[in-house]
Write a structure and sequence with these properties.
The protein is of the alpha+beta class. The protein has a single domain, classed as CBS-domain, CATH 3.10.580.10. The protein has 4 helices and 5 strands, in the order E-H-E-E-H-H-H-E-E. The strands form 2 sheets. The chain has a 3-stranded mixed beta sheet. It has a two-stranded antiparallel sheet with strand order 4-5. Strand 2 and strand 3 form a beta hairpin. It starts with about 25 loop residues before the first strand and ends with a strand. It comes from Streptomyces antioxidans.
Length: about 130
């Protein structure tokens, strides 16, 4: 009798979910943090983005280092500018059960480099990033 080793076929990309491709959430900060402090957190963590939370512990968005740099370098900048002042509306977000294909379309359409993955309670469980 000869044993045959079977290798499982990769899941169909159309049915794979964000959970299969997301990274750990990474650095998480409160929305009352100043831009300068947020930039320092990014540099010390060697991260290109931060997940931002409100006072209720819900993820309100993701902010990238280049966004913070633009704000800091603007003529309207003061050291009192908080993340909540520049974050804008909540989102976009995705669910862990969203298909990778659907999340990728959302990211490409919105020209997003990363997308927070949040659970039903508004807590970030990961980040989905486009690979270039």
């Amino acid at each position: 009798m000869t044993l045959v080793q079977m290798t499982p076929r990769p899941a169909d990309p159309a049915t794979r979910t964000v959970v299969d491709a997301m990274d750990a959430p990474g650095p998480q900060v409160w929305d009352d943090m100043t831009v300068e402090v947020a930039l320092s957190v990014m540099v010390s963590d060697r991260s290109g983005h931060l997940l931002v939370y409100d006072e209720d512990g819900r993820c309100t968005g993701l902010i990238a280092q280049d966004q913070l740099t633009v704000v800091r370098d603007s003529s309207a900048y003061t050291d009192q500018v908080r993340l909540r002042d520049i974050l804008g509306d909540n989102g976009p977000f995705t669910s862990p059960m969203t298909t990778i294909a659907e999340a990728e379309r959302t990211m490409r359409h919105g020209r997003l480099g990363a997308l927070p993955v949040i659970d039903e309670h508004g807590c970030a469980v990961g980040v989905l990033a486009l690979s270039h």
